[in-house]
């Protein structure tokens, strides 16, 4: 019997990324409030939020300073836009701060309202750049299988997960996918991480050659893959592929939507993973998700092309009503101030060894084939047989069942396709809360193993 709110929900809402048939039966988990790393349902039951919402509430819930920043900006100038030469101080100040903390040279910042829009913008800017440079054939974009970049038509085309393609007539032509850099699944027997990286780089080179380098414009990758399963690339991966991209003058975009702002114990994932991209996409933790905000960094040659085109045709024809929304920018400014003042990124780096130790220990569990992570992100790969890495029939829904058991234990973690479970707590999680998270997850895995035996 569903609660009143749950019953009203299933009669009225389409849930994003959800098994709609299942949620109709079980009803959704209706949350009412949050505090620190805890969220509470409508019966007042607490859950440790082991996913920072959707990889985003890095500063936890009920941060009064972020609320105040939004309230002040709402009262002062709740809306203005950046079209046709208008501006406002929150957008200017935020862009200045982002330029300061970015790990690469940034000429300008362009704001969006989400990560999907940020990556959609990256696609358009890549095409725009090559048109401006008189290279109209150089348009193809290479992403990675299991990479996640969003759900707009272009960003879903970048995404390398079947759920984003089947039924949707995607990817669009010209969106290509290279191998997923997952050593556990992709390496040959006895192949070291470094050798696997070198092989992937050689395969990427051959792939670009086959496609014709004059037609390949950009490559996009997450420093650590989130929705694909918290997949950490093998040692030397980015060092091996970057010269290949440089050889063919391919624009390299780092999707920092999850990894940005401290997740890997560095300001950006690029720093932790040795990535030297031309441009970054960001969203989520830039406001600790208190307001929707995303964006992309624009490198100097691209900005020069924009200027030239504007001189010729009069307008840079891209942007939405909410690009640089003042309330979202004001909240982001405050969030970045807190990250700096409270040493949130350094704190994440200090807590990471404890988090990763507890995560690695789960690899001993009979159901866990691989436990992997870096910083405060982690993933588990559920297997039926550790030696052969064989997985359960996807219809059995083993990881989904484990996530449901975790919820029963008062822990929110996320089930991902391929029987994977993701962990991504708020960066402000305390060491004893890390222990609570893993104790509860361990019990959920035990209950799952019992359920399988029955
Ligand atoms: N890129 C990455 C790496 C993501 O994880 C996500 C969302 O989870 C996106 C892009 C899309 O962001 P949004 O859901 O804000 O559109």
Automatic annotation (TrEMBL):
It holds the Pfam family Aminotran_3. InterPro entries: Aminotrans_3, PyrdxlP-dep_Trfase, PyrdxlP-dep_Trfase_major, PyrdxlP-dep_Trfase_small. Keywords: Aminotransferase, Pyridoxal phosphate, Transferase. The keyword Transferase applies. GO terms for molecular function: transaminase activity. The keyword Transferase applies. NCBIfam families: PRK06105.1. PANTHER family: ADENOSYLMETHIONINE-8-AMINO-7-OXONONANOATE AMINOTRANSFERASE. Belongs to the class-III pyridoxal-phosphate-dependent aminotransferase family. This is Putrescine--pyruvate aminotransferase.
């Amino acid at each position: 019997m569903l609660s009143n709110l749950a019953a009203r929900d299933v009669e009225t809402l389409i849930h994003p990324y959800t098994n709609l048939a299942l949620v109709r039966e079980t009803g959704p988990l209706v949350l009412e409030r949050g505090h620190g790393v805890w969220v509470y349902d409508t019966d007042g039951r607490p859950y440790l939020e082991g996913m920072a919402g959707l990889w985003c509430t890095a500063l936890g819930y009920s941060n009064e300073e972020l609320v105040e920043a939004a309230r002040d900006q709402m009262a002062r100038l709740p809306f203005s836009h950046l079209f046709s030469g208008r501006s406002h101080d929150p957008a200017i100040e935020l862009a200045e701060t982002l330029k300061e903390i970015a790990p690469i040279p940034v000429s300008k910042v362009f704001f969006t309202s989400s990560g999907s829009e940020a990556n959609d913008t990256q696609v358009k800017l890549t095409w725009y750049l090559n048109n401006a440079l008189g290279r109209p054939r150089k348009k193809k974009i290479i992403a990675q299988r299991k990479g996640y970049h969003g759900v707009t038509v272009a960003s879903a085309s970048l995404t390398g997960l079947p759920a984003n393609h089947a039924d949707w007539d995607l990817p669009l032509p010209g969106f290509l996918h290279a191998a997923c850099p997952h050593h556990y699944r992709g390496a040959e027997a006895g192949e070291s991480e470094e050798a696997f990286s070198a092989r992937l780089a050689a395969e990427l080179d051959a792939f670009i050659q086959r496609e014709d380098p004059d037609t390949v414009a950009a490559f996009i990758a997450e420093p650590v893959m989130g929705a694909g399963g918290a997949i950490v690339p093998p040692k030397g991966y980015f060092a091996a592929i970057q010269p290949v991209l440089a050889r063919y003058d391919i624009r390299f975009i780092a999707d920092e939507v999850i990894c940005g702002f401290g997740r890997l114990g560095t300001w950006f994932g690029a720093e932790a993973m040795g990535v030297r991209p031309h441009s970054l996409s960001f969203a989520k933790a830039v406001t600790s998700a208190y307001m929707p905000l995303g964006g992309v960094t624009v490198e100097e040659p691209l900005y020069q092309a924009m200027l030239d085109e504007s001189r010729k045709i009069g307008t840079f024809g891209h942007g939405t009503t909410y690009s640089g929304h003042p309330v979202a920018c004001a909240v982001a400014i405050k969030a970045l101030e807190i990250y700096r003042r409270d040493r949130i990124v350094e704190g994440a780096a200090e807590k990471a060894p404890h988090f990763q130790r507890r995560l690695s220990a789960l690899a001993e569990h009979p159901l866990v084939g691989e436990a992997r992570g870096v910083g405060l992100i982690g993933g588990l790969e559920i297997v039926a047989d550790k030696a052969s890495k064989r997985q359960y029939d996807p219809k059995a829904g083993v990881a989904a069942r484990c996530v449901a058991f975790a919820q029963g234990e008062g822990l929110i973690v996320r089930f991902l396709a391929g029987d994977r479970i993701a962990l991504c707590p708020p960066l402000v999680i305390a060491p004893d809360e890390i222990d609570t998270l893993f104790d509860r997850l361990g019990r959920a895995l035990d209950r799952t193993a019992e359920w399988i035996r029955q």
